[in-house]
């Protein structure tokens, strides 16, 4: 008789350590985001959450003895099996807390790795997650092996005489990382070929970026009719999704890219691991920064996104539109004020991707932004340059054409990118 798997009973803790940063984010908001992360991982039943205020972190176990005992009693009473700690936890702290509480402990990095592992869909995404997880695991072998003093003799490739268990495990992980890197290099080469092919495509690339859960996938679905996973959940999208789409209302044809959501304090292992999945942003003709304007920390989230774009070295010359999404969740007075503020800014569009309000104006704004960088040019093509002529017409760049005795005289309107691609034909 089959039994459905029972969800793991989990508890979320956010350590509010005063000595770390006087300008740290609001601990209650941070806890809310941590609970959102927990909900993003299938198989967890989050039974409760709380902020633990600490004057400083205890090096051996993060919390003091009294707090550890108080929490142990709570977890025992609630039959908790997993504690998620929203912040960095050293391997020694993790081992000591697990021993004290007799349950599994996962820190913020470990939780995000679990989510990424669950969501990664492309071959590259899966390999990047495996590498990030192994790098993280390599630093935590002390937790898995409490008998490090025990020596063992090696057999064949397993290890030489006197090699400790932890050294053998580290070497196994390093070997696996080398294998994964080789596989990844092949996948990245294939992706770069696809990207080069897209660069020659007739359509500009519009990249949607934003803090996780800002509504990018819902907006993407509204514009494309695609059924991308769009849930009220952190990291609902992890691999870039790209669609060729003709924007509604007679707008231009574009390639629309929905990217992984950004998040504050993203573990360094994952910033490196997922840099490749954000490469579409580097080659974009237009970046649409989607913000959840109803979120209490929308300004902090905006700063986090802009910092990551800066770290990615996205060219400042790339045009940007800031989309104030979820205005349907804002009360009437605040909404009126937001709409007034947005109307005063050329680069801002307020809308609701759920109700559709403001979507037509966004399409117009995207069209205008993509044509703003174009210029008129006059070309003359010989009769034997039919391929070049066809290329111009396929892209809708020809405004006027006349046949001459030696070929065709064309008036075109194109971008610098169009001109560069034309020169390569």
TrEMBL record:
Keyword line: Cytoplasm, GTP-binding, Magnesium, Metal-binding, Nucleotide-binding
Any GO CC annotation of this UniProt entry: cytoplasm
Binding site for GTP: 210-217, 235-239, 258-261, 325-328
Statement: the UniProt record of this protein carries the keyword Cytoplasm: yes
Chief place of localization: cytoplasm
Domain Hflx-type G: 204-374
Pfam families: GTP-bdg_M, GTP-bdg_N, HflX_C, MMR_HSR1
Annotated Mg(2+) binding sites: 217, 237
Family (UniProt): Belongs to the TRAFAC class OBG-HflX-like GTPase superfamily. HflX GTPase family.
Record text on subunit structure and interactions: Monomer. Associates with the 50S ribosomal subunit.
Protein name: GTPase HflX
Lineage: Bacteria, Pseudomonadati, Pseudomonadota, Alphaproteobacteria, Rhodobacterales
């Amino acid at each position: 008789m089959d039994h459905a798997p029972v969800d793991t009973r989990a508890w979320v803790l956010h350590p509010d350590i005063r000595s770390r940063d006087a300008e740290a984010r609001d601990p209650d908001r941070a806890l809310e985001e941590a609970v959102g992360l927990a909900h993003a991982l299938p198989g967890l039943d989050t039974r409760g959450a709380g902020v633990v205020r600490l004057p400083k972190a205890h090096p051996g176990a993060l919390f003091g003895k009294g707090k550890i005992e108080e929490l142990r009693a709570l977890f025992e009473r609630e039959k908790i099996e997993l504690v998620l700690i929203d912040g960095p936890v050293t391997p020694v702290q993790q081992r000591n807390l697990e021993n004290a509480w007799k349950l599994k402990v996962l820190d913020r990095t470990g939780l995000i790795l679990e989510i990424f592992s669950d969501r990664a869909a492309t071959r590259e995404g899966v390999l990047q997650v495996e590498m990030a997880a192994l790098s993280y695991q390599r630093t935590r072998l002390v937790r898995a092996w409490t008998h490090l003093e025990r020596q063992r003799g090696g057999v064949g490739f397993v290890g030489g005489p006197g090699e400790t268990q932890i050294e053998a495990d580290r070497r196994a992980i390093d070997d696996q990382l080398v294998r994964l890197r080789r596989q990844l290099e092949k996948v990245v080469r294939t992706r770069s070929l696809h990207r080069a092919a897209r660069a020659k495509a007739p359509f500009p690339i519009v990249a949607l970026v934003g803090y996780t859960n800002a509504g990018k996938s819902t907006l993407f679905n509204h514009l494309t009719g695609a059924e991308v996973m769009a849930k009220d959940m952190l990291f609902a999208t992890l691999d870039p999704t790209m669609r060729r789409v003709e924007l509604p209302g007679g707008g231009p044809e574009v390639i629309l890219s929905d990217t992984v959501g950004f998040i504050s304090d993203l573990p360094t292992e994952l910033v490196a691991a997922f840099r490749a999945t954000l490469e579409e942003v580097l080659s974009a003709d237009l970046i649409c920064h989607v913000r959840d304007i109803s979120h209490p920390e929308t300004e902090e989230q905006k700063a986090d996104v802009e910092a990551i774009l800066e770290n990615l070295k996205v060219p400042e010359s790339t045009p940007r539109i800031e989309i104030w999404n979820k205005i349907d969740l804002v009360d009437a007075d605040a909404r009126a004020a937001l709409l007034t503020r947005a109307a005063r800014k050329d680069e801002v569009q307020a809308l609701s991707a759920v109700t559709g309000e403001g979507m037509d104006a966004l399409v117009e704004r995207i069209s205008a932004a993509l044509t703003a960088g174009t210029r008129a040019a006059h070309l003359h093509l010989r009769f034997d340059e039919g391929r070049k002529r066809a290329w111009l017409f396929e892209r809708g760049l020809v405004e006027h054409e006349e046949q001459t005795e030696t070929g065709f005289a064309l008036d075109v309107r194109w971008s610098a990118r169009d001109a560069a691609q034309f020169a390569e034909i």
